[in-house]
């Protein structure tokens, strides 16, 4: 990538150049279906408020990394994006998230029933698109099986998480395991790209593990934003038992935070001053250093997986992308360090 771009611009360019076309299609494909006219309002809302360039970009680059033609990933990437949309909508229902990142969710604006229906339609459309892939029967079967394996992992992770929430005994280790499971969507995305590109089993495994590292890093970055209450969701997360990883880690290393979280849960005390005290106490326990250390570890692992592949422009871009996530995360911490 050219040096004239900032890190943020470089990441956005990678996503748009390699996944922008599919991202635009995935946000409108249900809206364009005349049979869904009765759902026009919620589908228009989604088309304006949801977009996923990450999935198609990484699948395209994975295919290119093994010598394949990236345009052949179009149908699979579109299907994967729609599957991600389903999970995105159903997660909001599970978390009862009516607002996310300062905007209403589909669940918050149109209700649970509509969110369930649209999520189901997105999944059905995804498998319909998969059947249109112009690939051999064996390859199509492999890709379909990977989709199903992903769904079983997501369902298993959500089931375990819901059980732990009700028991009020969620640990940081449990949460990290869930985050690692949730990263399976990015792992699957890279594997499918390699398969479509006729990569070897070894190449698909390398790229899959790279994808898992990217997915974990992205999830941890989101988790940290919630943990320091940048998204103003922390009080609700505590109330519902969906405590973020870094808060759980700090609770296990601080009696003060343990007591505050216990008081907040039992007394239902969620004033902003109280939440600020929890965040301040968490930052005192070197949570920033822990976050950087963990993300550095997965960045290193991801880069190591790429070493096993032939060096080309696609693998170079993949390496740049994962390394940039670490840079962006470290820069975002400056305000908390007082730099």
Element string (H = helix, E = strand)? HHHHEEHHHHHHHHHHHHH
Number of strands: 2
Percentage of residues in helical conformation: over 70%
Q: Please name the fourth-level CATH homologous superfamily.
A: Farnesyl Diphosphate Synthase
Low-confidence stretches: none
Mean pLDDT, to the nearest integer, reads 89
* Structural category: mainly alpha
The top-level CATH class is: Mainly Alpha
The tally of domains stands at 1
What does this structure look like?
The protein is mostly helical and about 350 residues long. It has one domain: Farnesyl Diphosphate Synthase, CATH 1.10.600. Helix content is about 75%, strand content about 0%. It has helices at about 5-30, 40-50, 55-65, 75-95, 105-110, 110-130, 135-165, 170-180, 185-195, 200-225, 235-240, 245-255, 255-265, 270-285, 285-305, 315-330, 335, and strands at about 100, 105. It has a two-stranded antiparallel ribbon with strand order 1-2. Strand 1 (about 100) and strand 2 (about 105) form a beta hairpin. The mean pLDDT is about 90.
At a glance:
This protein has a single domain, classed as Farnesyl Diphosphate Synthase. The chain is built from 17 helices and 2 strands. It has helices at 7-28, 40-49, 54-65, 74-95, 106-110, 112-130, 137-167, 172-182, 184-196, 201-227, 234-240, 245-253, 255-267, 272-284, 287-307, 313-332, 334-337, and strands at 99-100, 103-104.
Explain the layout of strands and helices:
Elements: H1 7-28, H2 40-49, H3 54-65, H4 74-95, E1 99-100, E2 103-104, H5 106-110, H6 112-130, H7 137-167, H8 172-182, H9 184-196, H10 201-227, H11 234-240, H12 245-253, H13 255-267, H14 272-284, H15 287-307, H16 313-332, H17 334-337
Antiparallel strand pairs: 1-2
Helix pairs in contact: 1-3, 1-4, 1-16, 3-4, 3-9, 3-16, 4-6, 4-9, 7-8, 7-9, 8-12, 9-10, 10-15, 10-16, 12-13, 12-14, 13-14, 15-16
């Amino acid at each position: 990538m050219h040096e004239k771009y900032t890190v943020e611009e470089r990441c956005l360019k990678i996503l748009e150049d390699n996944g922008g076309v599919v991202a635009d299609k995935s946000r409108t494909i249900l809206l364009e279906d005349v049979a869904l006219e009765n759902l026009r309002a919620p589908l228009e809302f989604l088309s304006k408020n949801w977009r996923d360039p990450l999935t198609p970009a990484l699948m395209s680059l994975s295919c290119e990394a093994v010598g394949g033609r990236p345009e052949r990933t179009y149908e699979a990437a579109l299907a994967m994006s729609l599957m991600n949309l389903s999970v995105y909508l159903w997660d909001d229902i599970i978390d009862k998230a009516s607002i996310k990142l300062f905007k209403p969710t589909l669940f918050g604006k149109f209700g649970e029933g509509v969110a369930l229906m649209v999520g189901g339609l997105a999944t059905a459309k995804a498998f319909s698109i998969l059947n249109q892939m112009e690939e051999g029967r064996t390859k199509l079967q492999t890709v379909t099986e990977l989709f199903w394996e992903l769904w079983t992992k997501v369902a298993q992770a959500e089931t375990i998480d819901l059980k732990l929430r009700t028991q009020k005994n969620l640990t940081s280790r449990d949460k990290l395991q869930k985050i690692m499971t949730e990263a399976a969507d990015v792992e699957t995305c890279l594997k499918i790209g390699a398969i479509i590109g006729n990569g070897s089993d070894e190449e698909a495994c390398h790229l899959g593990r790279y994808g898992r590292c990217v997915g974990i890093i992205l999830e941890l970055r989101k988790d940290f934003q919630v943990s320091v209450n940048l998204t103003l969701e922390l009080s609700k997360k505590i109330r519902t038992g969906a405590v973020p990883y870094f808060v759980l880690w700090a609770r296990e290393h601080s009696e003060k935070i343990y007591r505050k979280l216990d008081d907040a849960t039992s007394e239902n005390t969620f004033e902003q001053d109280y939440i600020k005290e929890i965040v301040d106490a968490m930052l005192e326990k070197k949570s920033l250093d822990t976050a950087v250390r963990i993300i550095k570890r997965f960045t290193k692992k991801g880069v190591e997986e790429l070493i096993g592949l032939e060096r080309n422009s696609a693998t170079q871009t993949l390496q740049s992308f994962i390394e940039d996530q670490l840079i962006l995360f470290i820069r975002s911490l400056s305000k908390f360090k007082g730099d």
